[in-house]
Amino acid sequence: xxxxxADAAGPGAVRAxxxxxxxxxxxxxxxxxxxxxxRVSGGALYVGLLIVVGLALSLAAGPDAYNRYAGLLGSPLGxxxxxxxxxxxxxxxxxxxxxxxxxxxKGFLPTTANITAWLCxxxxxxxxxxxxxxxxxxxx
Amino acid sequence: xxxxxxxxxxxxxxxxxxxxxQGARKIKTFKVYRYDPEIDANPRWDTYDVDVGAxxxxxxxxxxxxxxxxxxxxxxxxxxxxxxxGSCSINLGGRNxxxxxxxxSDVPGNQITISPLxxxxxxxxxxxxxxxxxxxxxSIEPWLHTDTPEPQKEWVQTPEDRGLVDGLYECILCACCxxxxxxxxxxxxxYLGPAALLQAYxxxxxxxxxxxxERLDYLEDPFKLYRCHTIMNCAQVCPxxxxxxxxxxxxxxxxxxxxx
Lengths: 140, 260
Prior knowledge:
Chain A is an all-alpha fold. Chain A has five helices and no strands. Chain A binds chain B through residues 1-2, 4-5, 8-10, 12-27, 29, 31-32, 35, 99, 102-103, 105, 108-110, 113, and chain B through 4-7, 9-10, 12, 33, 35, 37-40, 42-43, 91, 93-95, 113, 115-123, 128-129, 131-132, 135, 182, 185, 189, 229-233, 235-236, 243, 245-246, 249-250, 252-253.
């Protein structure tokens, strides 16, 4: 197959064939955004897991270390990162359920897939805001 | 690793502008990808102000109008001009479609961007090299495989069984779906792509075919089949309204079925 690419100049051509534009011209569907967000949120969850591991380690290292770590997480920047991880978590959860439906052969109609993609985004935002609202209320 | 931008020799530069002729009634601007293999230069975007009042309703009509009246060097594949042959597939306003069945009045905005099918080697202008695409189609052996002796008259099928290949056999191999797929953009040497997989399922679903096991063996591969991540671009752009994503899911289900 790669042979097809190797002699790609073609008769009369003076240089190798160019590659046609792809991401630069593509007009995205919401389903494509949903797919890339599933990947990105999955990556973000690794970071989230490291934060949780850090929490466990600080807990094991004694009250001083724990208080400093908890203070860091409770700072505005810490809260922003935690909010991002929470959104990623809820989005990934919803996208996982969506893919479960796909794997059982359901939801493939483009209109259905569009709706479920929007639902995943909406769920992620609503659930995250709710969790943070509850959390901040309990802290206050 | 997937690359997100075009290689150096493929970056598209600004090209020529062709103004509308005197006395044009209704003008639309077409921004067209141009590449001439006989000139040592990068591809370019040429813009054409077309008097759409003087040409037919479809994008293909406008392209042929440009070719006939402004620039005869513009290259495009086309044949049937009615959505049956699958030759004139292009990227139109950021989505893949057939130039012959898409009206220019349906493209949003005053400027219509036309480029070859995405992430493919370009032979000239709007003509992409589809050799790999067709080699992949050939690799799924798109013909009937049987072991039992051939019947005297014909291989028979109930209307219900025949119905199972509806939504599969209509594919015209225009490559709109495969070249819309980001997985295919980044793994096209290993991933078969939506079109070839839709056709693979067309033969898996055929009640007369007797090679289901071998066909599934061929597809059971981390790249050939499982690079599909249900991004859905294939089903979103298919000009025939087919659903390769669903067919791929059906193949995955068949692979599960045979081990559980």
